[in-house]
Amino acid sequence: MQSEEYLMHSKIIELQKRAKLLDISFQKVRSKQLNVQKIKDDIRSFVQYYFRDIRTAYIQDGRLENDLATADEYMQHLLRCAQKRTLLSVCKRTMKDINTALHELELKSIKPTISERCNSSDIRYTQVIDTLRRINSSAALSYGQALKDLSDADRKSWRGTAVEFRETLREVLDKLAPDEDVKAQPGFKLEQDAKGPTMRQKTIFILKSRHIAEKQIKPLADGINIVEELIGKFIRSVYERSSVATHMHTSKEEACKIKDYVTLALIELLEIRT
Fold first, then answer.
1. Which domain holds residue 119?
2. Which tens digit of pLDDT belongs to each residue from 67-80?
3. Which of 19, 51, 116, 250 would bridge 112 by S-S if both were Cys, CB 3.0 to 4.6 A apart?
4. Cβ atoms within 10 A of the Cβ of 251, count?
5. Is 112 within 8 Å of 127 (Cβ atoms)?
6. Which residues of the chain fall short of a pLDDT of 70?
7. Considering the domain boundaries, does residue 193 fall inside one?
8. Is 274 a member of any domain?
9. What's the pLDDT tens digit per position in 214-238?
């Protein structure tokens, strides 16, 4: 049985073939304007096929609607060419733009879908949960709940998922690096506007206590900063987006990205050997 990824890719290849036929038709026109009714009808069929079949299948396959924005725009432009008297040069230029957009879409179609990127069955996640249970049951519950959220195909909001990942990381850092211990370090200073040690400072404290080389500490500490920035930006964006469809697809991908960063950080902090 063919995979969904292969089927999606095949649909786009078919669309590219139809685009090629339109290109050939344009080359046969000798007038400056597109005035051949059959070609106009072919344009309508071509655009309808894109919106009715390709676009719908792409989104149903769990891919980002934003991927289609460029193709959407040029397809609508091409349809306008068929609806009124239009210079043939404009039609050809629009088809060139469509071909470029379809090539980009073809590349995106062979990437894993959101659901594949968010697959939570990886053995690493089991190892993280098992380790968390031994040191902080609350963190284990938060992490497990976040993974469960990402496996829920019917879920509409991912804000809570991001918060669960953040809480997991925060609780682990609090457990391994209590505020008072971090503050007791020689030369410790609170960062600007911070009421206590930051997640980054706690991470550095933990790694230094293990006598890890400075060059190995920086990447993970920077990664913790990225997690904080991603989650903060993600939660703010929930309130800013007006398109429900865009929100759902984009938000899930962002939540998966947060999962990846948090998981990598936990593997290092908990000294899990995968």
1. 115-269
2. 898 999 999 999 99
3. 116
4. 21
5. no
6. 1-6, 62, 110-121, 232-250, 274
7. yes
8. no
9. 777 877 777 787 777 777 666 565 4
Structure tokens at 115: 């659901």
Residues 178 and 74 in one domain: no
CA nearest 112: which of 74, 56, 64? 64
- DSSP-based three-state secondary structure for 24: helix
Number of domains in the chain: 2
Q: What is the pTM of this model?
A: 0.53
Are 46 and 22 in contact by the 8 Å Cβ rule? The answer is: yes
Final residue before a domain boundary, out of 59, 78, 111: 111
What six digits make up the tokens of 250?
């984009």
Query: Helices then strands (H, E): number in the chain?
Result: 13, 0
User: Is 148 in contact with 229 (CB distance < 8 Å)?
Assistant: no
What is the SS3 assignment for 53-121?
HHHHHHHHCCCCHHHHHHHHHHHHHHHHHHHCCCEHHHHHHHHHHHHHHHHHHHHHHCCCCHHHHCCCC
Q: Are residues 216 and 261 in the same domain?
A: yes
Helix, strand, coil tally for the chain in percent (to 5) = 75, 0, 25
The one-character DSSP state at 154 is: T
Q: Token pair for residue 172? A: 């682990």
65 plus 167 within the same structural domain: no
The DSSP 8-state label assigned to residue 51 in this structure reads: I
Structure tokens at 52: 């009715």
The conformational region for residue 217 under phi > 0 = left, psi -120 to 50 = alpha, else beta, is alpha
Residue 10 amino acid letter: S
